[in-house]
Write a structure and sequence with these properties.
- There is one protein chain.
- This protein is of the alpha+beta class.
- It is 37% helix and 21% strand.
- The chain contains three helices and four strands; from the N terminus they run H-E-E-E-H-E-H.
- The longest helix is centred in the middle third of the chain and has 17 residues.
- The radius of gyration is 13 Å and the shape is globular.
- The two termini are 20 Å apart.
Length: 111
């Protein structure tokens, strides 16, 4: 995923947390903030240290990025969103994570 598709700064993360809306399932928490006049969506990922060591956390982030890449054409362009991984996501494959992302995005009425 290209860097222009990422929420990077702490200020942007805090804006999405405080002004956005959240929905959740057992594996993920999704915060969404609508932003007009944006060419593409931006995503931020958060995997806490309680999820395991660095290798496990990075694997979860890679799986999340891959699932978002596969859903890229279905996600509207004018939003910023943050995905926070929960313990239920440990041990899941890319396809399972993709279906979990789809579920939480349908709850948020994005897809």
């Amino acid at each position: 995923m290209k860097k222009k598709y990422r929420v990077k700064s702490d200020r942007d993360f805090q804006r999405v947390f405080h002004q956005g809306e959240s929905v959740a399932n057992r594996q993920l928490v999704l915060y969404v903030l609508a932003k007009e006049h944006q060419d593409h969506f931006r995503v931020g990922l958060s995997v806490g240290k309680k999820m395991g060591n660095a290798v496990q956390r990075n694997q979860i982030k890679r799986y999340l990025r891959q699932a978002i890449f596969e859903l890229e054409d279905q996600i509207p362009a004018e939003i910023d969103f943050i995905l926070i991984a929960r313990h239920g996501i440990k041990g899941m494959g890319v396809d399972q994570i993709k279906s979990s992302i789809c579920h939480v995005m349908k709850l948020a009425k994005i897809l």
